[in-house]
Automatic annotation (TrEMBL):
Active-site residue list: 43, 222
Family per record: Belongs to the glycosyl hydrolase 43 family.
GO function term, MF aspect, one: hydrolase activity, hydrolyzing O-glycosyl compounds
4Fe-4S is among the record's keywords: no
Highest taxon of the lineage: Bacteria
Organism, as annotated: Nonomuraea cypriaca
Signal peptide: 1-27
CDD domains recorded: GH43_ABN-like
UniProt-recorded name of the protein: Family 43 glycosylhydrolase
Site note Important for catalytic activity, responsible for pKa modulation of the active site Glu and correct orientation of both the proton donor and substrate, residues: 161
Pfam families the UniProt entry points to: Glyco_hydro_43 (PF04616)
């Protein structure tokens, strides 16, 4: 398995001339990708809290009996295990653990003074994936609330990839996720719905805001992440099939979180491993913004492939997110992962 060569820190800084990093942010190339050598970090969900970065990942039940490992770092260089979203004996009773738990995301809700973890799991009552939620006083070791937060109303298909957006303009929270029917059953697309400020109740009207329409997206868009920047609501998403070389990261924007979104005018993804021999299946991003580190995008990638199919595990990656393109559109490195 190939691991990219670490660029020297001083050399990386010297090469950054045209596009400077945001104040406090690390320049692209100053972190060796992948961030660590554990290949079990699919669908990373990140949170920055108490001066630390935590990342949770998709998993089945591991040797400890826990699911969705959580790792922690102060500097994004050195990482350690801090536990799981669910420890042994605490898996949700409504779920079928043999199919694994997907795409965990962790948020802190001030109205209840707790962390809430979202994830997708098979509902034993329907055989389809639903969105679950659980609470904790820490960003690990959660307690499930005993039933799914949201399922497809008729159990016609699964819904996956939950995330939360807090609109600082209106003070409202929103739940985003992916409708995941088979292609013959409907369109795989991204949905946004209002949710109460406890993150646990009061899910409102669904708005379908992003669907696959460009050739690189294939028949699927997924893994939504929404941020507000420069007067626009930006939705970052991944398109195509997750374990193929064409899987990549796209972006669209709107003046409303539930409004009509316009995709990147370049026509292509803003981050891809396609035609890059180092990486395969680049995507399923999460975004953090801090005063100290600026805008960072975390995502996963395979490090090997066979033809167009990705092989091996998925590794945690990171790059700086810049807002310096014409019209304020974002970019990531040179459109491929940095080393």
């Amino acid at each position: 398995m190939r691991v990219p060569v670490h660029r020297l820190f001083a050399a990386a800084l010297a090469l950054v001339a045209v596009f400077a990093a945001p104040p406090g942010a690390m320049a692209a190339g100053s972190f060796p990708n992948p961030l660590f050598t554990w290949g079990g970090t699919a669908d990373p969900g990140t949170i920055y809290t108490d001066g630390r970065y935590y990342v949770a990942a998709t998993s089945g039940v591991d040797s400890t009996g826990g699911v969705m490992p959580v790792r922690v770092s102060v500097d994004r260089h050195s990482w350690s295990n801090s536990g799981h979203v669910f420890e042994s004996g605490k898996l949700p009773g409504w779920s079928d653990s043999s199919y694994g738990y997907w795409a965990p995301e962790i948020y802190f809700f001030h109205s209840i003074g707790q962390y809430v973890a979202y994830f997708a799991a098979i509902n034993t009552a329907t055989g389809k994936r639903c969105i679950g939620r659980a609470t904790s006083s820490t960003p690990y070791n959660f307690t499930d609330l005993g039933r799914p937060l949201l399922c497809h109303p008729t159990a016609a298909y699964s819904i996956i990839d939950p995330s939360i957006f807090f609109d600082s303009v209106t003070g409202r929270h929103y739940l985003l996720y992916k409708d995941d029917p088979n292609p013959s059953e409907g369109t795989k697309q991204i949905v946004i719905r209002p949710i109460n400020d406890d993150g646990l109740s009061g899910i409102g009207t669904p708005y379908h805001i992003v669907a696959p329409a460009r050739s690189w997206e294939g028949v699927s868009v997924e893994a939504p992440t929404m941020v507000y920047q420069g007067g626009f609501y930006w939705i970052f998403y991944s398109g195509a099939t997750y374990n193929r070389d064409t899987y990549a990261l796209g972006v669209a924007r709107s003046t409303s979180p539930t409004g009509t979104f316009t995709k990147d005018p370049s026509g292509g993804p803003i981050l891809s491993g396609n035609n890059d021999p180092r990486y395969c299946g680049v995507g399923h991003q999460d975004i953090e913004h801090t005063a100290a580190d600026g805008w960072l995008v975390f995502y996963h990638a395979y490090l090997s492939q066979s033809g167009e199919s990705c092989t091996g595990g998925r590794y945690l990656m990171m790059d700086v997110l810049y807002w310096d393109r014409s019209g304020g559109w974002p970019r990531i490195h040179d459109g491929t992962p940095s080393e």
